[in-house]
Amino acid sequence: MTQHTDSQSDLLPTTVREFFAAHVVHDADTASSFLTEDAVIVDQDETFHGREETYAFLRDAGAEFEYTTEQIGAHRADDTHWVVTVRLEGTFPGGVAELDYRFTLRDDRIAELVIANHPA
């Protein structure tokens, strides 16, 4: 898996930047360390609650495919919400996807992450 970054990464809070860096290389231990104890992750309408479920998601998400991840956008929605847009290319159905990772922060930790298709 390859991660490409751009200057927009510099705009992100350290928590989001480091979580994302760990997530794209399937380092679930490091990625989960940035989550709150009661974190929620929603990925394509499937919801994972709390430490055990979110860790399992981070460990297993996309593991059956080979793909590259390129960050193509990032912005701050407000004081606690950030969005990272990525482009995935790989062996999954369709071969290409653009996704928004919508982060909600609480006390410098990720309280919620919603992963959804990027609007066309």
UniProtKB/TrEMBL annotation:
Residues of the SnoaL-like domain: 16-112
Entry-linked InterPro entries: NTF2-like_dom_sf, SnoaL-like
Protein's name according to its UniProt entry: SnoaL-like protein
